[in-house]
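Customer escalation, tier 2.

The customer says the design service returned an amino acid string that "doesn't look like it belongs to this structure." They asked us to rerun it and document both sides in this ticket. The original structure tokens are below, unchanged.
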């Protein structure tokens, strides 16, 4: 199985680690009002007025989640000048173990549940895994993803 992909415009593979903060800010913005994502980020302390919900803190959180995946051969893609982003894990590439310093109990529960489900449904078959996909909510150019 070949892992080589040809990425064509308007998609662009992220190869420079200096682009990870921009990638993370799109993800943080896309999920800024999502209750489940807030629980994954804050755990049982989750509430809409929590001080850690500031955009810069959420982006830093996502940067710490995305960077190890990027370093472990995840494929990061942006579309239409950052209108949307996606993080793919190629066949044979697993998510790194969760860092307990940044992952809440909600994140651990979520990961355990979906890792077990993936193992049940896919077994040991190699597959591409779409780990994250996010649309920049401030962009109004519909359909540019």
């Amino acid at each position: 199985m070949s892992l080589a992909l040809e990425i064509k415009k308007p998609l662009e593979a992220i190869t420079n680690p200096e682009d990870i903060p921009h990638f993370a800010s799109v993800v943080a913005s896309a999920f800024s009002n999502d209750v489940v994502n807030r629980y994954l980020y804050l755990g049982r302390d989750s509430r809409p007025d929590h001080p850690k919900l500031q955009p810069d803190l959420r982006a830093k959180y996502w940067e710490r989640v995305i960077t190890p995946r990027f370093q472990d051969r995840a494929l990061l893609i942006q579309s239409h000048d950052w209108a949307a982003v996606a993080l793919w894990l190629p066949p044979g590439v697993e998510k790194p173990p969760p860092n307990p310093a940044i992952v809440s109990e909600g994140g651990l529960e979520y990961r355990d549940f979906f890792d077990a489900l993936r193992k049940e449904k896919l077994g040991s078959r190699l597959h591409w895994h779409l780990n994250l996909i996010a649309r920049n909510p401030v962009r109004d150019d519909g359909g540019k993803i």
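Tier 2 assessment: The sequence is consistent with the input. Residues 11-135 form one domain. Residues 49 and 79 are 31 Å apart (CA to CA). Sent an explanation to the customer and offered a walkthrough call.
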